[in-house]
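Action item from last meeting closed. Structure (253 res):
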């Protein structure tokens, strides 16, 4: 299995272009349940290309994006360079290098399944202010609500190398409940979607670290089957990804 800190290095361009953002409802949820304001200081752990950081930057928060992958971190610095309140940090969930007791909310978007949970919990608790919050966020692709999504899932199961090993759905609600302090854990779900033409759908599948990339075994066969699936299920040259955006909230003391 690829090292989690480098496995997206050859996927950055497609990741930037074709991964989904998060709905505004996430901000409303954090305002209601975590006291989020534009003055809240945010640590975005595993910030990648800056998708989750941008959500908070547009809310006028100051965001420290912590990312160990050099290529993804560089992409975030390029894409978010116009935001003076964005700070890019070379670090990990277990060793962020951030100051102790300074942050109101620690966020991890589409990244928690890569963390050493015990060490990350200690680090999150260290950098948060007393009474601070953790927010773990995922866009979880629906796999069986439409014929297209069922066909796409079957494609991944056939061609993806370690899809079932690294799939974040292997983490259960019990894992989240144990990560946070007792009785502080809650979960909220919102709808999200992406609409793709064939080139964008191709970019979306190639943004996934578990899929064959150009030059890998199975690459040509996978793209051929993807074209077949697209033609079978497209409407006016488009297909739709449906997501449940899940937000897991909790405190650490």
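Sequence:
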């Amino acid at each position: 299995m690829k090292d989690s800190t480098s496995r997206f290095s050859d996927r950055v361009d497609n990741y930037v272009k074709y991964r989904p953002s998060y709905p505004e409802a996430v901000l409303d949820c954090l305002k209601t349940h975590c006291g989020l304001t534009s003055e809240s200081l945010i640590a975005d752990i595993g910030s990648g290309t800056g998708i989750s950081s941008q959500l908070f930057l547009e809310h006028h928060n100051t965001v420290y994006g912590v990312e160990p992958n050099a290529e993804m971190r560089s992409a975030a610095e390029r894409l978010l360079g116009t935001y003076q309140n964005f700070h890019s940090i070379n670090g990990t969930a277990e060793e962020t290098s951030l100051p102790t007791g300074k942050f109101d909310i620690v966020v991890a978007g589409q990244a928690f399944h890569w963390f050493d949970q015990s060490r990350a919990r200690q680090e999150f608790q260290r950098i948060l202010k007393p009474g601070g919050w953790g927010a773990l966020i995922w866009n979880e692709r629906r796999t069986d609500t439409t014929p297209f999504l069922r066909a796409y899932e079957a494609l991944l199961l056939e061609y993806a190398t370690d899809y079932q090993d690294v799939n974040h759905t292997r983490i259960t609600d019990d894992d989240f409940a144990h990560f946070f302090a007792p009785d502080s854990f809650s979960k909220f779900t919102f709808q999200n979607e992406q609409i793709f033409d064939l080139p964008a759908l191709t970019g979306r599948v190639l943004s996934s670290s578990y899929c064959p990339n150009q030059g890998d075994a199975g690459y040509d066969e996978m793209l051929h089957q993807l074209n077949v699936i697209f033609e079978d299920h497209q409407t006016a040259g488009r297909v739709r990804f449906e997501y449940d955006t899940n937000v897991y909230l909790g405190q650490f003391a």
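Note appended to the action item: Residues 1-7 have pLDDT under 50 and may be disordered.
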